Q: What sequence folds into this?
């Protein structure tokens, strides 16, 4: 790596990290729930990342590296208020009714094509995502929206990988149940 | 199929590409043979797709990336400027602009309090223009070897007296070499501002000289405070000197007084 603070090092840093500014902002907003604080947190995150760039492993996922820095800095900043990751078993409980009805809207036969399927659900996805308890929502969004691996999510959220696995599958089961009911109300699928 | 339960509970991992090689292949085979498990896998994929495409992405401030770039540019400049100043932290880039000034002990300060709008406009201009220097995106239009010739040229162009600093005296205080490069002139509204380029060590820096009308006398002023960069102005009888710095205001003022206005 080139000399500290040199143009070459800065270019390389920017090339690797700046494509993730929007992702880091979304992640920061999820932590702070305040746009102004999220903006400050993003700036601090990139500054810290730049200072620690010599510790970045080439070839590893820059996005999850930035998320980790962002989360750690958030905890430092708001230590008293910060909700450190829960490990209690209660939070892992998520009631999902096992769907007795076999509505196949989500499965092979229920979908004409992808476009129709996506058009079917608009704001409902977000409505149900918000109903999802936060630990589940975070794991699911990091996986499906941000494309992080279970291992990376485990590092970002400070929870064991088994917990990540369980939160993702339970989170999806919860969403599926809600969306199936919704689709059924619209007259899709069959019992 | 009797194995269905065994595979079914791993379908999320399978869809997410989290399964190891041989077991992943086992699931591949099973899903291709078992319609029920294929449906279950499809359902997982579709929920994943829905979240990916429909989850609300909050609007990101348009200038956020630019601001992040700016912070990094400032930090990069700071990293290059730190070494070699013994006993205390090295001055960051622009602050050292003041090295070049001859600000005489009889120096009279004034603050252009009569024209705050103009002052704010110049500060903003200085802030942006300085960043271009730090980023190496600007170079002097007129090059000079000596400060006297350059001061005379600036005075003529700005139509007012300009004095530059005693480099030797400053070097004793700071312990860093400053090399004068040259000057450019920039237009800020109706005002013609001189931008002085110099090197601190090898770091390209700049400071600014703006002709301004006399106002109240109030010493060194913090004219604009950004998140990572502040602009200070130091009015004299005939011009106002502007410096952009990443130091804390109190720290800058102290260094400025210690090194540029040593008490007799």
A:
């Amino acid at each position: 790596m080139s000399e500290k603070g040199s143009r070459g090092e800065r270019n390389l840093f920017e090339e690797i990290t700046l494509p993730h500014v929007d992702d880091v902002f979304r992640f920061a907003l999820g932590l702070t729930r305040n746009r102004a604080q999220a903006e400050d947190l993003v700036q601090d995150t990139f500054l810290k990342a730049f200072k620690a760039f010599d510790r970045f492993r080439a070839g590893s996922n820059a996005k999850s590296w930035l998320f980790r820095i962002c989360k750690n800095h958030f905890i430092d900043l708001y230590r008293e208020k910060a909700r450190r990751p829960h490990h209690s078993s209660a939070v892992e409980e998520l009631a999902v009714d096992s769907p007795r009805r076999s509505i196949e809207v989500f499965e092979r036969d229920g979908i004409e094509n992808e476009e129709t399927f996506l058009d079917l659900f608009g704001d409902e996805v977000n409505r149900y995502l918000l109903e999802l308890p936060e630990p589940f929502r975070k794991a699911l969004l990091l996986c499906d929206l941000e494309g992080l691996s279970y291992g990376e999510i485990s590092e970002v959220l400070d929870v064991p990988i088994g917990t990540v696995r369980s939160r993702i599958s339970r989170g999806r089961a919860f969403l599926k149940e809600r969306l199936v009911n919704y689709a059924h109300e619209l007259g899709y699928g069959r019992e | 199929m009797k194995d269905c339960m065994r595979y079914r509970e791993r379908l999320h991992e399978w869809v997410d590409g989290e399964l190891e090689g041989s077991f992943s292949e086992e699931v591949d085979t099973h899903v291709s043979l078992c319609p029920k498990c294929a449906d279950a896998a499809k359902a997982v994929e579709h929920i994943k797709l829905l979240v990916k495409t429909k989850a609300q992405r909050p609007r990101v401030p348009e200038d956020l990336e630019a601001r992040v770039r700016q912070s990094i540019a400032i930090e990069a400049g700071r990293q290059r400027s730190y070494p070699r100043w013994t006993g205390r932290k090295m001055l960051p880039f622009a602050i050292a602009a003041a090295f070049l000034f001859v600000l005489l002990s009889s120096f009279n300060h004034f603050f252009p309090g009569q024209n705050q709008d103009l002052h704010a406009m110049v500060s903003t201009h200085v802030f942006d223009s300085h960043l271009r220097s730090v980023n190496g995106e600007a170079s002097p239009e007129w090059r000079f070897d000596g400060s006297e010739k350059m001061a005379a040229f600036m005075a003529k162009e700005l139509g007012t007296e300009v004095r530059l600093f005693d480099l030797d005296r400053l070097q004793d205080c700071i312990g860093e070499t400053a090399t004068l490069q040259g000057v450019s002139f920039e237009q800020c509204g109706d005002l013609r501002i001189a931008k002085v380029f110099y090197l601190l060590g090898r770091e390209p820096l700049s400071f600014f000289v703006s002709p301004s009308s006399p106002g109240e006398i109030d010493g060194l002023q913090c004219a604009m405070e950004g998140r990572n960069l502040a602009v200070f102005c130091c009015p004299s009888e005939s011009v106002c000197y502007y410096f952009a710095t990443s130091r804390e205001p109190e720290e800058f003022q102290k260094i400025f007084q210690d090194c540029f206005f040593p008490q007799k």
In short: The CA atoms of residues 65 and 71 of chain B lie 10 Å apart. Chain B has two domains: 4-54, 64-260. The longest strand of chain B covers residues 178-188.
